[in-house]
Amino acid sequence: MREKIILHLDMDSFYASVEIRENPALSGLPVIIGADPMEGKGRGVVSTCSYEARSYGIHSGMPISQAYHLCPQAVFLPPIMKKYVRVSESIMQVLRDIGGEIEQVSIDEAYLNLSTDISYENAAEHAAKIKQKIRESEGLTCSVGIAPSRTYAKMASEHHKPDGLTVLPPDQVYGFLSALPVHAIPGIGKKSAQILINAGIILIGDIARIDVQILQEIFGSNAVRLKEIALGTDREGLRISGPRRSISRDHTFQVNIDDATQIMKYLDQMVMSLCQELQERNMYSRTIGIRIRNQNFHTRTKSITMIQPSRDFRILQKTINLLFSDIWTGEPVRLIGVRCSGLVRLNPVQKTLQDYF
Ligand SMILES: [Mg+2]
After folding, report:
1. How many Å lie between the centroid of ligand 1 and the Cα of residue 165?
2. What pLDDT does 347 receive?
């Protein structure tokens, strides 16, 4: 059987890099994309930050007020999703041009299955070409990992950032893994890592050596999978089995909000991201729905089935805005969500003779 070859691509500090490329004066400065810091009193979080900002201990997901206290002189910018979605589309196109199955996992991250008919050397050449193309056409850097499973490919791309290319043929996987700390495995968060460290399990190599029953006490049914990953024998491919029936996005507010303009801004971003995914999957949505949860965790939903399946941002945005004004009572909102369902692939319109003249 052929060895799997999975490529993982992750853009380097994506939103921040896009802003810096458009304003070179920001280059070399700590740049933070996220909520308005309001001189340390702002709410919301850091979306992305430049590597210079990271050296102050700032990272994505951190409260913006904390980021402000760590580095008040940083350049704080609001995210402009429309712009990032456009850049993302052209990056995904570079991947599609290579051919092979693609699994986009976020706006700046995707897996590519290169397993058919190529060697690890060929795969590395492809990766170098992808990186060069993205640098030339978008002026951005990315990090790429190539390995025999989804998990190892992600760990490989993480290993060397920014602008890295890490190739892990099957016979090098175990050597690479065994010396890494346990938290390098995707899905092992701070808490699990601390439990492992307390039990004297510091490196992935320690997980490989330890009895699976001890892992079971900590991780339950996930222990076997974790052991497999640590041993270097995981071979999971892309997660794109069969067409998806629905796709959705949601957002939980840090502080409940009742500002309609603000809520609609988030709805717009979610619709934009869903339209992008529909484009990505070459699908259209027949039904679009909204979900609103209030501070008492009471959830209301409403959806509309359209006459014509669509992935047009303006059409879906307008529909969601209608649904929102229909079910929102003005009460503070804790969570909002948008779902596209009844996904269909439309046959391309048959060309008639006239189209050729
Ligand atoms: Mg990234």
Report:
1. 14
2. 55
- Specify the domain boundaries for CATH 1.10.150.20 within the chain: 171-239
The Å distance, Cα 18 to ligand 1 centre, comes to 12
Distance 268 CA to ligand 1 centre (A): 22
Distance CA 56, CA 216 (A): 37
The residues annotated as belonging to the active site are 109
The arrangement of secondary structure in 171-239, i.e. its CATH architecture, is: Orthogonal Bundle (1.10)
Q: Which residues surround ligand 1, an ion (CB under 5 A)?
A: 10-11, 14, 108
- pLDDT at residue 244, rounded to an integer: 61
In the chain, list all ranges with CATH 3.40.1170.60.
Answer: 19-79
Strands (E), the chain: 6-11, 31-34, 46-49, 75-77, 102-106, 109-113, 142-147, 165-167, 246-257, 284-294, 299-310, 333-344
Segment 109-126 shows an average pLDDT of: 90
Is residue 356 very low, low, confident or very high in pLDDT (cuts 50, 70, 90)? very low
Q: What is the dihedral of CA 226, 229, 234, 240, to 10 degrees?
A: 70
Between the CA of 48 and the centroid of ligand 1 the distance, in Å, is 9
Q: 85 CA distance to ligand 1 centroid (A)?
A: 13
Domain 19-79 has CATH 3.40.50.720: no
240-270 pLDDT, tens digit each: 755 567 888 888 888 999 999 999 999 999 9
Extract the tokens encoding 320: 């969601």
- The predicted model gives 135-150 an average pLDDT of 96
Verdict on whether the full-model pTM lies above 0.90: no
Strand partners, 247: 340
- Top CATH class, 246-344: alpha beta
